[in-house]
Amino acid sequence: MKYHLITLGCQMNMSDSERVRTIIETQTGYQWTDNEDEANMVGILACSVRQKAIDKVYSRIQKWNKWKNKKSLLTFISGCILPNDLEKFLKLFDIVFRMSELEKLPEIIRQYGIVTPASLQVDFKAMPENESINSFWKVAPLYSSDFEAFVPIQNGCDKFCTFCAVPYTRGREVSRLSAEIVGEVQRLIGQGYKSITLLGQNVNSYGLDKKGDEVSFPGLLRRIGEMGKALNQEFWVYFTSPHPRDMTEDVIETVSQYDCLAGQIHIPIQSGDDEVLRRMNRKHNVETYRKIIHSIRKHLPQATIFTDIIVGFTGETDEQFENTRKALKEFNYNMAYIAQYSPRPGATSSRWADDISREVKKTRYHQLSNDLRKCSSVHNRNMIGKTYRVLVTGHDRKEGYLSALTEGKIVCRFASDDKQLIGKFADLEITSSTDFSVEGRLVEVGG
Predict the structure, then answer these.
(1) For FRET with 4, which of 94, 155, 210, 250 sits at 20 to 30 Å CA-CA?
(2) How far is the C-alpha of 392 from the C-alpha of 371, rounded, in Å?
């Protein structure tokens, strides 16, 4: 019996999928297949945060349900899903479960078609019960890579940004025990992992829900940093994503003190206009955000800075959009993930008029993307002639080349067909650049 799992959305869903695969393969007898056509069970970890991701779910399940006319097929869905979407999926999928119900999945699969539809066994009317997420974290993940790993440190969100569905899909913030986090990181390093990303909706509010029973986020970083000092191994630790409201100088200073804490900061701004930020309920303004950027430049001058931006938010005027363009140029990002606003059912802004036309959103998206291209291009040109430590991540699209990432997550490629280099550190002299990547010459391999 074979299964296939499709994962949509963010890195948190990708991390969750590794634990789902563990339960399926160790407790149900199903084995993974890359080919969904030959699977006896197919599933999706969905994401309600973006409409495009939900559209992909409907497209897939329509195809799968047609397959049932020709063969026996079991379908399931879980992930980061709004209650409205869940109710619709109950009618389309055989099994629907919350991630906190993962331990019940093997029994649900065994019972399906014998007693009642499995999808009716879970009550989806209530908000997610985050207390049970602790048992989910104890599941040993089946990592999808042998050199890169995601380690969840937190689940849920307390910020309630008006555009965001996460508090309604994952519930309120719950921090994982620091001993479990440090233990997982230590095991990964012992197994030779080179890149580890700490995951949470708002990582820098880690521990705040424990009322002093846990370390703060800087404290967690220090524990990992000290462990890195004690070990004679090279690795990079990242975190994503922090919220400007909780981003303290202590976090940035801690990153600067330890070699294993990578010099790459992802700090979402969402908009460069104070009034838009207020309506987004971001609880920060451009000036407070500016201070964070200045602190990063002061303590981590070589760090790359990534961000998230939404264009076409409800009521965004041309002038407010221009303020976002000014912010992007001022903060001179290496990379920005730009999204066109779409209302999500359940989020506060879904009750407001989506009054920016699709054409205007597209125009603003392309304008901001061009601004970003100019910033990134300058950064990358300045890398030419310098040597960078990189982690080789796989084959490049260009034949005869391998792909790699710098510590700052700048995409590189270099001429080589030696697949033994994948998963290793190397030194690369940069010889040319494009808007969003660089090319180099392999100088030395090690680690």
Answers:
(1) 155
(2) 29
Of the candidates 114, 130, 146, which is a domain's last residue? 130
Nearest to 269 by CA among 250, 296, 298, 299: 296
Evaluate whether residue 297 is within a structural domain.
no
Residue 82 lies in a domain: yes
The pLDDT tens digits of the residues spanning 106-156 come to 888 887 643 333 343 444 444 344 556 888 888 889 999 999 999 999 998
In a domain, residue 215? The reply is no
Question: CA-to-CA distance for 345 and 358, rounded, in angstroms?
Answer: 18
Gyration radius (Cα) of the chain, Å: 22
Cα(20)–Cα(152) distance, rounded to whole angstroms?
Answer: 14
Backbone angles phi, psi at 288, to 5 degrees: -65, -35
- Taking a C-beta distance cutoff of 8 angstroms, is the pair 286, 272 a contact? yes
Q: Quote the distance between the C-alpha of residue 248 and its chain's center.
A: 21
| Burial call 14-53: b when 16+ CB within 10 Å, e when fewer | bbbbbbbbbbbeeebebeebeebeebebbbbbbbbbbeeb
How far is the CA of 98 from the CAs of 42, 51, 105, in angstroms? 16, 20, 10
For the chain, what is the domain count?
A: 2
Q: Does 57 reside within a domain?
A: yes
Is the model's pTM score more than 0.70? yes
CATH number of the domain bearing residue 422 = 2.40.50.140
**Structural domain range at position 76:** 2-130
Residue that terminates a domain, selected from 113, 130, 147: 130
Angle at the Cα of 328 (from 377 to 342), degrees rounded to 5? 110
